[in-house]
Amino acid sequence: MSKSKRTKKVKQSNELAVVEHDPINEAKSLMNKMNDSAKSLRAQVYEFYERKMWLAFYLDSGLKGCRKCLKNHIKPDTYSSVCRYLQVAVVEVELQIKQGSMSLTVLLMYFKYRKEDWHTIFEELPKNPNKKIFEIICDELLARGKIEKVKPAKKSEPVDNLKTAKKLLNILTPDELDELYESIVKAINQLF
Protein backbone atom coordinates (compact mmCIF):
# COMPACT_ATOMS: atom_id res chain seq x y z
CA MET A 1 0.00 0.00 0.00
CA SER A 2 1.42 3.38 -0.91
CA LYS A 3 1.36 6.50 1.22
CA SER A 4 -1.72 8.57 0.68
CA LYS A 5 -1.76 12.34 0.91
CA ARG A 6 -4.63 14.27 2.29
CA THR A 7 -5.24 17.95 2.40
CA LYS A 8 -6.20 19.72 5.58
CA LYS A 9 -7.37 23.27 6.01
CA VAL A 10 -5.06 25.16 8.40
CA LYS A 11 -6.91 27.43 10.85
CA GLN A 12 -4.41 30.30 10.77
CA SER A 13 -4.80 30.84 7.05
CA ASN A 14 -7.01 29.86 4.20
CA GLU A 15 -4.16 27.91 2.56
CA LEU A 16 -4.26 24.16 2.27
CA ALA A 17 -1.40 22.16 3.75
CA VAL A 18 -0.42 18.67 2.58
CA VAL A 19 -0.49 16.19 5.47
CA GLU A 20 1.25 12.85 5.10
CA HIS A 21 -0.88 9.86 6.08
CA ASP A 22 0.92 6.53 6.22
CA PRO A 23 -1.45 3.75 7.31
CA ILE A 24 1.30 1.10 7.41
CA ASN A 25 3.48 3.07 9.84
CA GLU A 26 0.44 4.02 11.92
CA ALA A 27 -0.59 0.36 12.16
CA LYS A 28 2.97 -0.72 13.04
CA SER A 29 3.21 1.99 15.67
CA LEU A 30 -0.06 0.93 17.27
CA MET A 31 0.95 -2.75 17.23
CA ASN A 32 4.27 -1.85 18.88
CA LYS A 33 2.34 -0.07 21.63
CA MET A 34 0.17 -3.18 22.05
CA ASN A 35 3.26 -5.38 22.29
CA ASP A 36 4.86 -3.07 24.85
CA SER A 37 1.63 -2.97 26.86
CA ALA A 38 1.30 -6.78 26.85
CA LYS A 39 4.97 -7.26 27.79
CA SER A 40 4.59 -4.74 30.58
CA LEU A 41 1.45 -6.41 31.97
CA ARG A 42 3.08 -9.84 31.77
CA ALA A 43 6.15 -8.56 33.64
CA GLN A 44 3.99 -6.90 36.31
CA VAL A 45 1.96 -10.08 36.91
CA TYR A 46 5.19 -12.08 37.11
CA GLU A 47 6.60 -9.70 39.72
CA PHE A 48 3.34 -9.76 41.68
CA TYR A 49 3.38 -13.57 41.77
CA GLU A 50 7.09 -14.06 42.34
CA ARG A 51 7.14 -11.60 45.25
CA LYS A 52 3.87 -13.02 46.67
CA MET A 53 2.49 -9.51 46.94
CA TRP A 54 -1.08 -10.68 47.60
CA LEU A 55 0.05 -11.76 51.07
CA ALA A 56 0.01 -8.08 52.04
CA PHE A 57 -3.79 -8.40 51.95
CA TYR A 58 -3.70 -11.33 54.41
CA LEU A 59 -4.97 -13.82 51.85
CA ASP A 60 -4.04 -17.49 51.46
CA SER A 61 -0.45 -18.04 50.43
CA GLY A 62 -1.35 -20.24 47.45
CA LEU A 63 -2.51 -19.53 43.93
CA LYS A 64 -6.14 -19.29 45.09
CA GLY A 65 -5.24 -16.42 47.41
CA CYS A 66 -3.41 -14.69 44.58
CA ARG A 67 -6.38 -15.07 42.22
CA LYS A 68 -8.78 -13.82 44.88
CA CYS A 69 -6.67 -10.72 45.43
CA LEU A 70 -6.42 -10.01 41.70
CA LYS A 71 -10.16 -10.56 41.20
CA ASN A 72 -10.88 -8.03 43.95
CA HIS A 73 -8.49 -5.37 42.63
CA ILE A 74 -8.21 -5.78 38.85
CA LYS A 75 -10.76 -4.38 36.41
CA PRO A 76 -13.04 -7.11 35.02
CA ASP A 77 -12.04 -6.41 31.41
CA THR A 78 -8.36 -6.97 32.31
CA TYR A 79 -8.82 -9.89 34.69
CA SER A 80 -8.82 -12.72 32.11
CA SER A 81 -5.55 -11.48 30.58
CA VAL A 82 -4.03 -11.14 34.04
CA CYS A 83 -5.07 -14.72 34.88
CA ARG A 84 -3.46 -16.03 31.71
CA TYR A 85 -0.23 -14.19 32.60
CA LEU A 86 -0.53 -15.49 36.16
CA GLN A 87 -0.58 -19.09 34.89
CA VAL A 88 2.53 -18.34 32.87
CA ALA A 89 4.22 -16.78 35.91
CA VAL A 90 3.46 -19.90 37.95
CA VAL A 91 5.31 -22.04 35.40
CA GLU A 92 8.22 -19.59 35.04
CA VAL A 93 8.71 -19.35 38.80
CA GLU A 94 8.38 -23.11 39.32
CA LEU A 95 10.90 -23.90 36.57
CA GLN A 96 13.10 -20.93 37.51
CA ILE A 97 13.25 -19.65 33.97
CA LYS A 98 13.66 -16.03 32.97
CA GLN A 99 10.37 -14.17 32.71
CA GLY A 100 9.33 -13.74 29.09
CA SER A 101 11.95 -16.11 27.70
CA MET A 102 9.48 -18.74 26.49
CA SER A 103 6.32 -18.58 24.41
CA LEU A 104 3.10 -17.88 26.27
CA THR A 105 1.37 -20.70 24.36
CA VAL A 106 4.00 -23.26 25.34
CA LEU A 107 4.02 -22.21 28.98
CA LEU A 108 0.23 -22.53 29.21
CA MET A 109 0.48 -26.10 27.91
CA TYR A 110 2.26 -27.18 31.10
CA PHE A 111 -1.11 -27.08 32.86
CA LYS A 112 -2.20 -30.19 30.95
CA TYR A 113 0.31 -32.12 33.08
CA ARG A 114 0.84 -32.65 36.79
CA LYS A 115 2.94 -29.93 38.42
CA GLU A 116 5.38 -32.54 39.71
CA ASP A 117 6.10 -33.49 36.06
CA TRP A 118 6.90 -29.97 34.83
CA HIS A 119 10.65 -30.28 35.53
CA THR A 120 10.81 -33.60 33.64
CA ILE A 121 9.14 -31.97 30.64
CA PHE A 122 11.34 -28.88 30.82
CA GLU A 123 14.55 -30.93 30.93
CA GLU A 124 13.58 -32.73 27.70
CA LEU A 125 12.67 -29.61 25.72
CA PRO A 126 15.04 -27.75 23.40
CA LYS A 127 15.86 -24.11 24.23
CA ASN A 128 12.98 -22.38 22.39
CA PRO A 129 10.28 -24.99 21.82
CA ASN A 130 7.14 -24.33 19.87
CA LYS A 131 3.75 -25.91 20.56
CA LYS A 132 4.31 -28.84 18.19
CA ILE A 133 7.68 -29.75 19.71
CA PHE A 134 6.19 -29.50 23.22
CA GLU A 135 3.40 -31.90 22.22
CA ILE A 136 5.82 -34.39 20.64
CA ILE A 137 8.11 -34.40 23.69
CA CYS A 138 5.16 -34.81 26.06
CA ASP A 139 3.67 -37.63 23.97
CA GLU A 140 7.02 -39.45 24.15
CA LEU A 141 7.26 -38.90 27.92
CA LEU A 142 3.68 -40.12 28.36
CA ALA A 143 4.40 -43.23 26.30
CA ARG A 144 7.44 -44.01 28.48
CA GLY A 145 5.42 -43.44 31.67
CA LYS A 146 7.64 -40.54 32.78
CA ILE A 147 4.78 -38.02 33.13
CA GLU A 148 1.00 -38.02 33.57
CA LYS A 149 -1.72 -35.73 32.38
CA VAL A 150 -3.82 -33.87 34.93
CA LYS A 151 -6.81 -35.98 35.79
CA PRO A 152 -10.15 -34.54 34.71
CA ALA A 153 -12.23 -32.83 37.36
CA LYS A 154 -14.24 -35.11 39.59
CA LYS A 155 -17.72 -35.75 38.22
CA SER A 156 -20.54 -34.32 40.26
CA GLU A 157 -22.86 -36.55 42.22
CA PRO A 158 -25.93 -37.79 40.37
CA VAL A 159 -29.02 -35.64 40.77
CA ASP A 160 -31.90 -37.12 42.75
CA ASN A 161 -34.72 -36.20 40.37
CA LEU A 162 -37.48 -37.43 42.68
CA LYS A 163 -36.19 -35.25 45.51
CA THR A 164 -36.03 -32.27 43.12
CA ALA A 165 -39.59 -32.94 41.92
CA LYS A 166 -40.88 -33.03 45.52
CA LYS A 167 -39.25 -29.65 46.17
CA LEU A 168 -40.92 -28.27 43.06
CA LEU A 169 -44.35 -29.24 44.41
CA ASN A 170 -43.91 -26.64 47.15
CA ILE A 171 -42.63 -23.94 44.79
CA LEU A 172 -44.76 -24.14 41.64
CA THR A 173 -48.12 -22.43 41.19
CA PRO A 174 -51.20 -24.57 40.43
CA ASP A 175 -51.01 -23.59 36.74
CA GLU A 176 -47.33 -24.53 36.57
CA LEU A 177 -48.11 -27.86 38.29
CA ASP A 178 -50.83 -28.59 35.68
CA GLU A 179 -48.36 -27.84 32.89
CA LEU A 180 -45.73 -30.07 34.51
CA TYR A 181 -48.30 -32.85 34.99
CA GLU A 182 -49.30 -32.71 31.32
CA SER A 183 -45.63 -32.86 30.26
CA ILE A 184 -45.03 -35.91 32.47
CA VAL A 185 -48.13 -37.72 31.19
CA LYS A 186 -47.11 -36.98 27.59
CA ALA A 187 -43.57 -38.29 28.24
CA ILE A 188 -44.92 -41.48 29.87
CA ASN A 189 -47.33 -42.11 26.94
CA GLN A 190 -44.45 -41.78 24.48
CA LEU A 191 -42.60 -44.58 26.29
CA PHE A 192 -45.39 -47.06 25.45
What is the topology?
Layout: E1 4-9, E2 16-21, H1 23-50, H2 63-73, H3 76-95, H4 104-109, H5 118-124, H6 131-143, H7 161-171, H8 174-191
Antiparallel strand pairs: 1-2
In short, what is this structure?
The protein has 192 residues and is mainly α.
Keywords, separated by commas or semicolons:
192 residues; two-stranded antiparallel ribbon; 6% strand; disordered N terminus; 59% helix; mainly alpha
**Distance between the amino and carboxyl termini:** 70 Å
**What fraction of residues sit in β-strands?**
5-15%
- In terms of per-residue confidence, which ranges show pLDDT below 50 for 5 or more consecutive residues? 1-13
Q: What does the average pLDDT come to? A: 84
Q: How many E-type strands? A: 2
Q: SSE order in H/E notation? A: EEHHHHHHHH
Task: Give the radius of gyration.
Answer: 28 Å
Helix count equals 8
Measured as a percent range, the helix fraction is: 55-70%
What is the molecular shape?
extended
What class do helices, strands and sheet pairing give? mainly alpha
Order of adjacent strands in the largest pleated sheet: 1-2
Largest sheet entry:
2 strands, antiparallel
Verbal overview:
There is one protein chain. This protein is mainly α and 192 residues long. Among the domains are: 20-97, no CATH class; 102-153, no CATH class. The chain has 8 helices and 2 strands. It has helices at 23-50, 63-73, 76-95, 104-109, 118-124, 131-143, 161-171, 174-191, and strands spanning 4-9, 16-21. Strands 1-2 form a two-stranded antiparallel ribbon. The chain starts with a strand and ends with a helix.
